[in-house]
Amino acid sequence: MSLSRRNDELWIEGCNARALADGHGTPLYVYSRAAIESAWRAYDQAFAAHPHLICYAVKANGSLAILQLLARLGSGFDIVSGGELARVMKAGGDPARVVFSGVGKRDEEIEQALEAGILAFNVESEPELERIARIASARGERARISLRVNPDVDARTHPYISTGMKENKFGIDIHAAEALYHRAAAMAGIEVTGLDFHIGSQLTELDPLADALSRSLALVDRLEAAGITLEHLDIGGGLGIRYRDEAPPTPAALAERLGPLLEGRPQTLLMEPGRALVGEAGVLLTRVEYLKSGHREFAVVDAAMNDLMRPALYQAWQRIETVAPEAVPARAYDIVGPVCETADTLGAERSLALRPGSVLAIHGAGAYGFAMASQYNARPRPAEILVDGDTAHVIRQRESFEDLWRGETLLER
Ligand SMILES: Cc1ncc(COP(=O)(O)O)c(C=O)c1O
Ligand SMILES: N[C@@H](CCCC[NH3+])C(=O)O
């Protein structure tokens, strides 16, 4: 196990969590290299029977060292901005394995992606298609595209992270997509290469994904009958992880479920997992500053909503435990940060034995943790550590006060 409890202390591979907190300071993000690599390999092996490419969703955790180790495994990447493309390339990722999603691609981002030679744009609207065609034509190129269809399935996840219903901003209504494929196939600057969908995140059931794939394959068949053949099918990401007591399907279960639908199909299967690859590989370590009693019992810790936004934004529940036992009675604490917002609660009514100075680990922090962190309240963002066996690599320094005003200018008078 990459994260384990031994002698009632938390270890990340061969590194003791409390020793990491003492040595590097808190708040501190810590990731296990082995956990990330084994999650990627499990995904890859699950789909071994079908030609496929995993395009890791960079948004989940875009730290350079993490992109670098995935690139070394042969991963592709799903990006949603020019900044993410720049990060992938900085980390040694192969642009020919990059797909570009997102509803608001700007001219310069399209130029940048064409220049890099990405695998495909996942086109989310008709005006975007026209824009990509115009820019590619002007460069004397043909842009490879998938249409991202909106299959109108209910992913049965949190409404903020559900993306495949017709009222969502994402993708092109699957009923309108066929006509748009015909238009795209006739455009000078466009090479139609694929079809894409992504129905939501933290999925705990396979039915919605299978449903979305069936609906998409019916469209693929109609396109083929009309002479439009596709090279790849992109089923997006979304497999959930266990935050509390969820039992999300494994990649193997996903492959088994989709296998019969894909049989005999020559298309390469693209997948865009984010959370499932990195989520459970990371913890956020934080130290108790004060215990404060009143109407409720508060443990004021040194991490806050700016460091880990999911609890405040989605009322997400993430497991919190002490990294080593404390010889005091447990109480039901609200774990709160120093930020001046009532929403700055990382966990409510957690039964924990705490003293000032206790170190807590917030689990499931490898995905959408640091990636969504801000400097709100002028709080420097935490350091990130990648543990590899018994070695702890600092892959990002804790920010300094200078980082807080980088790029700002004082007025002369
Ligand atoms: C287009 C797209 N692909 C992939 C992902 C990755 O999702 P997840 O981290 O749930 O696998 C997302 C985020 O939901 C997304 O918007
Ligand atoms: N940031 C979200 C997921 C959004 C997925 C991006 N499309 C989360 O933490 O759950």
TrEMBL record:
Pyridoxal 5'-phosphate binds at G238, E272, P273, G274, R275, Y368. It is an enzyme of class 4 (lyase). InterPro entries: Ala_racemase/Decarboxylase_C (IPR009006), DAP_deCOOHase_LysA (IPR002986), De-COase2_C (IPR022643), De-COase2_CS (IPR022657), De-COase2_N (IPR022644), De-COase2_pyr-phos_BS (IPR022653), Orn/DAP/Arg_de-COase (IPR000183), PLP-binding_barrel (IPR029066). Residues 29-366 form the Orn/DAP/Arg decarboxylase 2 C-terminal domain. It catalyses: meso-2,6-diaminopimelate + H(+) = L-lysine + CO2. The keyword Transmembrane does not apply. Residues 34-278 form the Orn/DAP/Arg decarboxylase 2 N-terminal domain. The modification N6-(pyridoxal phosphate)lysine is found at K59. The keyword Lyase applies. HAMAP family: LysA (MF_02120). Homodimer. Specifically catalyzes the decarboxylation of meso-diaminopimelate (meso-DAP) to L-lysine. NCBIfam families: lysA (TIGR01048). This is Diaminopimelate decarboxylase. It comes from Spiribacter pallidus. The gene is lysA.
